[in-house]
Amino acid sequence: MSFIIVAGAMVFVMIPGLAFLYSGLSRRKNALSLMWAVVASNAVVIFQWFFWGYSLAFSTSAHNGFIGNLRNFGLMKVFGGPSPGSPLIPAILYSFFQMEFGCVTAGILMGGIAERGRVFPAMVFIFCWMTLVYCPLACWIWSVDGWAMKWGVLDFAGGGPVEIGSGVSGLAFSWVLGRRQQKELLNFRPHNVSLVVLGTSLLWFGWLGFNGGSAFGANLRAVFAIWNSMLAASFGGMVWCLLDYRYERRWTMVGFCSGTIAGLVAATPSSGYLHPWSSVVTGVLSGTLCNLATKVKHLIHIDDALDLFAEHAVGGIVGLIINAFFADEDIIVLDGVSTTVRGGFMNHNWSLIYKQICYVLATCGYSFVVTALIAKAVDMLPGLHLRAGPTSEALGMDEVEHGEFATDYIELRRDFTAAPFITYESNDKTYTNGHPSAAGDRHGQPDTSLHDTVGDEDAPIEQGRISEKTEHHGASSSTSHTT
């Protein structure tokens, strides 16, 4: 019980990890909006899970194989009895641990609103999405009466509900929201790579509780799940970085972080079934295929700004298919409970390949269609339009939605010789010297205009030729001013 409590707390750390990751990947004028959406969705999911989410996913008195009933509404009758996950874990602890999975999944999905979505309608959407998409997906594979569970599908820690659920749903949500304005797509790059590294590190830490805790005990299977997570993450990061170097001749930090997350995603459904050498294959495949999948959004013209589909959906699919080939009973039985679960090709279970493929197709199709319908329905309600207007998009969601900023400061010019903006009076005349010290794209307003001297040519301070470097929408430009 102590191990699962700690593991659940580690999974919670993934919430600020996602918030930092998304904030760093966005433009500065939208950084706080994404942090708010991730943190607020966490609160919404906690309420939804307590209200009826746990019952809809794990009620033991529903036998339709698709979704539970309301027998455990408000956590009624959820006490110290055996849980659906393991007889060694009480139901009340299991409900907490699984709640954290739902919180992380919703946080991942909130990346779909990047730079153009309104946050309050997104909270209404996420409550409905948890009820109609996540809870059924969790019931399919983790409930004792779920159809995928009964069929023998192998999904250790959530390749279907968490990864495909968030990745494919993120694609559908982005499709309903529509593309950002063309000028917002030009020269787009992360505004703070340090936050990207911090967020990735917190996610990696939390993922060890995510995957290790899914063995439901401090046992050898949990240790193998943690080892497999580490290997897949490291090889995913290295492979992604190498692929990016091939194109750009740069060792990108964002690329390494992206590959690391892709490896962790692929380890989610597979880490509790594999020998460590198999996770090296998992990391290499996820790093390669997820990197290539980032091109899909351009082919289908859907503005998946933070690559939810490429990272989470494709990574989850890789991990699920890997199970069909490399899952081994020798690893599965190490938890002391799963003694009747068969592995894949390693144990001559040839039928597992088509079961895993059918499960992937079912989760992908259901997630996309139902998410798109929910998003469209919420968008049609008065006052709950999901998309902000073009003016709001230009100003930035932080200013329009929150009135606060993740980084609210005056940026100094990159060129040390650039003079500050000074206005002063002399001999009953007003003079302006230099340029404003704020440079770049602040709240959607580019500070790159030429400021002429006010007064006459006898101004007491004489400016020479000043070379000014500014940053606008992530692109550096050098402008020479003479006054």
- Biggest sheet: strands, sense, closure? 2 strands, antiparallel
Question: What value does the average pLDDT take?
Answer: 87
Please identify the oligomeric state. Answer: single chain
- Distance between the ends: 72 Å
Helix content: 55-70%
Class derived from helix and strand content:
mainly alpha
Rg calculated over all Cα atoms = 25 Å
Detail the poorly predicted runs: 412-419, 433-483
Count of helical segments? 18
Tell me the fraction of residues in β-strands, as a range. Answer: 5-15%
Shape: globular
SSE pattern: HHHHHHHHHHHHHHHHHHEEEEEE
Strand tally is 6
What spatial order of strands do you see in the largest sheet?
1-2
Briefly say what this structure is:
This protein is mostly helical and 483 residues long. The protein has helices at residues 2-12, 14-25, 31-58, 91-109, 119-142, 147-151, 159-177, 182-185, 193-212, 220-248, 253-270, 276-293, 296-300, 308-326, 329-332, 352-380, 390-395, 397-402, and strands at residues 422-426, 429-433, 441-442, 445-446, 465-472, 475-482.
Task: Explain the overall architecture.
Keywords: Ammonia transport, Membrane, Transmembrane, Transmembrane helix, Transport. InterPro entries: Ammonium/urea_transptr, Ammonium_transpt, Ammonium_transpt_CS, NH4_transpt_AmtB-like_dom. It is a multi-pass membrane protein. It comes from Macrolepiota fuliginosa MF-IS2. It is found in: Cell membrane; Membrane. A two-stranded antiparallel sheet has the order 1-2. A two-stranded antiparallel sheet has the order 3-4. The relative contact order is 0.13. The C terminus is likely disordered. The protein is built from 18 helices and six strands. The chain has 483 residues and is mainly alpha-helical. Helix 10 packs parallel to helix 12 and helix 14 runs antiparallel to helix 16. Strand 5 and strand 6 form a beta hairpin. The longest helix has 29 residues.
